[in-house]
Amino acid sequence: MPTPDRLRRPARTVKAALRRRDGQATFLFGALGYPLLYLASIGHLALGARGQSVQVVDDPLSRMLRQTRPFSFEPVARVAVDPVALLVSPLDIGVALVLAALVGANLAVAVVVWRSPAACGVERSAGLLASVPALLTGATCCGPAILFVVGVGTAGAGTGVLLTAVGYATPVTALLLVGSLILVTRGTAAVRTDG
C-alpha cells in the first residue's frame, strides 16, 4: 500500500531542513537539550552527587517495566559522576529520545521556514506554528516539576488525578509534534537546501 503524500511530505521537509546548517544546528539544540530537561524534570537527572559510582537494582529486567505513573517507568540503576547523578530508566530514556527527535525536527523546520518563507512557499507565521508544539512539550517535562515546586504533591487525592493527567501529556505531546509537522508542511513547497 503506497504511503500517502501527506505523510511523505513532512519527512521530505524535515530531511531538506536538516541539509541546511541552520536546520542542523537547531535540530541538535532541540535533540540534545530536550532529553536533559526531560530527565531532570522527572527527577532522573540531578546535580549534587559526589564521587563516582554505579548501582544496579535486583532483577532490573522486570523492574524496568514497572510504571511509576502513566508513561514513566522505574529506574534500574543509578550512575553518579561528580557532580551529576542519573537514574537510569531505559524506557524513560527512550521516551525522552523520541520526543527529542520530534522537538528537534519541529524546531528545525520552524527555523528554516522562518528564515526563508518565500523559498518554502509559506507565510513566515508557519514557522512559528511549527514551534508551538515544541514549546508545549514543556508541559510534558516541566509540568510535574512545577507541580512539586508549588506544593501540589502534598495536597491529597486531587493531586493524584492531576499528576495522572500530567503523565498523559507525554503521548499528547508526541501527537501534537507529529500533527504540527504534517500541518506546517501541508502547504510548504520544497525547502531550499542552500542556506
List the SSEs and their pairings:
Layout: H1 5-17, H2 21-41, E1 45-47, E2 52-56, H3 60-63, E3 67-69, E4 72-73, E5 77-81, E6 84-88, H4 90-115, H5 117-120, H6 125-136, H7 138-149, H8 157-167, H9 169-186
Antiparallel strand pairs: 1-6, 2-5, 3-4, 5-6
Helix pairs in contact: 1-9, 2-4, 2-7, 4-6, 4-9, 6-9
Question: Explain this structure to me?
Answer:
The longest helix has 26 residues, at 90-115. The chain starts with a helix and ends in a 9-residue tail after the last helix. It has 195 residues and is α+β, with helices and mostly antiparallel strands. The strands form 2 sheets. Strands 1-6-5-2 form a 4-stranded antiparallel beta sheet. A two-stranded antiparallel sheet has the order 3-4. The protein is 62% helix and 12% strand. Strand 5 and strand 6 (84-88) form a beta hairpin. The radius of gyration is 19 Å and the shape is elongated.
The overall pLDDT, averaged over residues, is: 77
Give me the side-by-side strand order of the main sheet. Answer: 1-6-5-2
Largest sheet: 4 strands, antiparallel
Radius of gyration: 19 Å
Portion of residues in beta strands equals: 5-15%
- The SSE string, one letter per element, is HHEEHEEEEHHHHHH
The percentage helix is 55-70%
Distance between the termini: 35 Å
Oligomer: single chain
